[in-house]
Amino acid sequence: MKRNTLVFSVVMVFALAMAACAPAPTPTVEPTPVPPTEAPMAKDIVDTAIADGRFTTLVAAIQAAGLVDALKAEGPFTVFAPTDDAFAALPEGTLDSLLLPENKQQLTDILLYHVVEGKVMAADVTGLSAAPTLLGKDLAVKVDMGNVYINEAKVIITDIETSNGVIHVIDAVLLPPAEEAAAPGTIVDIAVADGRFTTLVAAVQAAGLVETLSGEGPFTVFAPTDDAFAALPAGTLDSLLLPENKQQLTDILLYHVVSGKVMAADVVGLTSAPTVLGKDIAITVKDGSVYLNDTVKIIITDIEASNGVIHVIDAVLLPPQ
């Protein structure tokens, strides 16, 4: 009995010793959840152009034109963006001139001609024949041999998406079509607008010749300046503008008008010209200048009107008695 008790005691001591030497159980740790990685926010058109590195000239032009805020706006916009090489291909001095403060409006117009309202992806561009720009003038779109051209500029990279639109890269700067020259006004309109013929205009009105000189014509008018009228003898003009002297004033004015459109190149080949009054003006050329009736000098030529032409003279022509 004692022997069994001793064996049991030895076994218990051994078991307790083994338990003391066993490693402590590792506590269970729950893994910390990792939030999903968010895609970086897309930059706007301006910031995208700045970050790209191929558009330093375009960015400088946008800044000079004061269009940064406009192209950072919500949009969306489609920008046909010329590379630095495209700007470098402009005629020498063109870019430097455009960046001058006095040419800001011209630069702005050129840049707005590269921007279309809305987000027009490449797949949509190829289905167009024209695209209206923010300048109000259309771009021509054509597909040739698998390439897309905007006017004559080739689209070389497409669909650079931004937070407020899309950029397509082009290999040339787009220049807006030149403004069509406005049709000139009538002889009377031009004389009124010019500012050097206030006395002549007042005389034409007093003589009742506005309708005549606004008519179809054509007419050639030798127009005295205000200084020319001021050089008349004192009291002459005041007298001519009196209602009772209307016929005399009319005769003087008609003596300044020739039927037909006679340009300066034609005038120098003449020795005289018949006026609407029915009396001729003598024409001479002296030292490269043209004179009427020997003493009245033509000082400006070929101001074209819708119904004829004006040549400016330095004195009033008085009909022969």
What would your notes on this structure say?
The structure is a single chain. This protein is of the alpha+beta class. The protein has 2 domains: about 45-170, Roll (FAS1 domain); about 185-315, FAS1 domain (Roll), CATH 2.30.180.10. It contains 15 helices and 14 strands. It has helices spanning about 1-20, 45-50, 55-65, 70, 85-90, 95-100, 105-110, 120-125, 185-195, 200-205, 210-215, 225-230, 235-240, 245-255, 265, and strands spanning about 75-80, 115, 130, 140-145, 145-150, 155-160, 165-170, 220-225, 255-260, 270-275, 280-285, 290, 295-305, 310-315. The strands form 2 sheets. The protein has a 7-stranded mixed beta sheet with strand order 2-1-7-6-5-4-3. Strand 10 and strand 11 (about 280-285) form a beta hairpin. It is elongated, with a radius of gyration of 43 Å. Mean pLDDT is about 90; it is low at about 1-20.
